[in-house]
Amino acid sequence: MARIETPKRIRGTQDIFGDEQRRFARVLEAFEKVRRLYAFQRVDIPMFEDTQVFARSIGETTDVVSKEMYSFEDRGGDSITLRPEFTAGICRAYLTEGWQQYAPLKLVTSGAVFRYERPQKGRYRQFHQIDAEVIGAAEPAADVELLAFADQLLAELGIAEGVTLQLNTLGDAETREAWRGALVAHFEQHRGALSEDSLVRLDKNPMRILDSKDPRDRPIADAAPDIDAYLTSEAGAFFAAVTKGLDAAGVAWTRNARLVRGLDYYRHTAFEFVTDRLGAQGTVLAGGRYDGLIEALGGPHTPGVGWAAGVERLAMLLEEPATQNPDVAVVPIGLTAEAWVPRLLAYLREAGIAATTSFTGNVKKRMQRANDSGAQFAVVVGDTELEARVASVKNLRTGEQQQVGFDNLDIALLQLNEREGQERQFLAIQKQGGFIGRSLGRTL
Predict the structure, then answer these.
(1) What is the pTM of this model?
(2) Does 321 sit behind a cis peptide bond, omega within 30 degrees of 0 on the bond before it?
(3) Which contacts of 244-252 are long-range, i.e. CB under 8 A and separated by 24 or more positions?
(4) pLDDT (tens digit, 9 = 90+) per residue, 380-424?
(5) Which of 108, 105, 156 is nearest to 134 (CA)?
């Protein structure tokens, strides 16, 4: 019989396991914690949308839309796209689901996004983002709130050191139009020296030349006029309010006058949190104000500001998280005890104790697996112990062993845990001591 070849993982995707998964989970746990502190609501949106959601919002001339989106025609003949980012889908939902009545809205989401680009360290074709948005608030305070959220998230993850918030203003519509004209005039004077990509941008998206990495473009871009000379008084006041708010919140920032967003619906604040610890791909979190985006999707003028961060990028900056071991490993001796183990596991877990057991093997092998699991205690129960309503509790760190009655099993585990000076506490047991004994007493 011919050997069947196992299909390989698709290039640009990843199977996340072990240490990588613990880092990944740590980012999401911290995001959820800080989300609650800032009173942002969680939303979940579809993984695919009508292609026009992204073509209108991200811009048909951008690389994401023209080169990187996973778009296809479904069986009904509709053009569908796997989401390359979250903001457009959230704004679509804001319009189609009637969320305007709740504005201003503070929202977060997370999950997989898809872009067809060259895979490299920390960059995949299916990757994961966390995302935060404030929709319906035109005030600078919304920008400050989002930036403080991001700053506290990095602190919660323990990676704030060495990460710098770079901040710029893109001004209002009047500012942007005047600055754009000045940039076009400047770059036209140097058309013959620009790279091929920048020549395309000059016609479609001239602001993007400012962040070109091509060595041919850098001297020209560095000599381009700054936006400050074209700021209206209103735009200047908005940026000043944002920076004063950040100072008041204790969020450190630095000005980067070359930080831009190319699409016309971006206004005022643009920002990136950057580090030199990830090589050339130094941005770990980025965003800005997009006061014209919802209009591009067919809605009324609605202000918005948001940011997104790659989970994989953030995870790469983390120290290795501690392995999450069970508190207790249950070791049955005898067929009757083995049949009773699921009941004991259920009561342990209901009492707030992380518990596991091995499914097969003799007593020696099961004890070895209990040690290998990293559990602090082994609860050994044989047929004779069942009759006597006792269990042997062994401290797998010290080898100390004692018999404990079922009526006092959870309390004994708590006391042993405290005696060992463990930082982790069985919080549920402290609230409902003796729960296991009472529960088992009703069913034995």
Answers:
(1) 0.86
(2) no
(3) 245/140, 245/141, 245/143, 245/144, 246/144, 246/147, 246/148, 246/165, 246/167, 249/144, 249/147, 249/148, 249/151, 251/144, 251/147, 251/148, 251/151, 251/165, 252/164, 252/165
(4) 998 888 888 888 888 888 888 888 888 778 777 877 766 555 544
(5) 105
